[in-house]
Design goal:
By secondary structure, the protein is α+β, with helices and mostly antiparallel strands. The chain has one domain (3-205). 16% of the residues lie in helices and 37% in strands. The protein is built from 6 helices and 9 strands; from the N terminus they run H-H-E-E-E-E-E-E-H-H-E-E-E-H-H. Strands 1-2-3-4-9-8-7-6 form an 8-stranded antiparallel beta barrel. The radius of gyration is 19 Å and the shape is globular. The chain binds manganese (II) ion.
Length: 207
Amino acid sequence: MTKSESLKKYREKRDFNRSSEPFGDDKPSKPKAIFVIHKHDARNLHYDFRIEVKGVLKSWAVPKGPSTDPREKRLALPTEDHPLEYADFEGTIPEDEYGAGTVMVWDAGTYRNLKTDANKKKGAMTQAIKAGHVTIWLEGKKLKGGYALIRTEQDKNERWLLVKTDDDKADARRNPVSTEPKSVLTGRTLAEIRKETTPKSKDSESR
Ligand code: MN
C-alpha cells in the first residue's frame, strides 16, 4: 500500500482548509537511492534519465526530456548501465568517441520506489524493471514527485514511456526542460560547459 492510500481515511475525515492539522506528504519512506538526468548534446540533443539500482545507473535516453504534465508521455529508450560515479560527470566527450558531445547534469537528487512494501524486498527495483513497470518518487532540484516508466515494446525494439504521475507535484504549466536549462551541479549553460571543457586541439579550434 502506498502512503497516500494509507492516509486516505485520515484525509477524508478532515478539512485542511479549516484545520491546521498536517495533510501529510505522499513521499514514501526510505531507502533512498540517487537519480540523475544528463542533458546530452550529442548528434541529437537528448536527456539521459538514470536511476541507481544495485550499484549501477540504469539508463534511458529521453529525446524530448521529462515533463511535469501527466498527459505528456515521453519516449524513453533503454541504454547501457552506467557506473554510479557517472552521476557527477559533466564535460565534453571528444569527437569520434562514443557519445561525442557535451554532457550536463540537468537534474539530480534521490528517488524511492513508490511500491513501499517492495522497498523492504531486495531486488524490488530490478524486478520492476524486468516487469517493465517502474513507479518512483523523485526528489530532485527541478523534478519532484511520482514518475512512471512503462515498457511498451520488448526485445530489439524495446521502448519505454516516461510519464509524470498525477500527484500534487504535477504541473501542466511548468516546462523545466525549456525554462530551467542550466546545470544543477555547476549552474553552467550547455554552451559554457562546452567552452570550458572542450579539449583544445587543432582539430577542434573551429568548433
Ligand atoms: Mn546520451
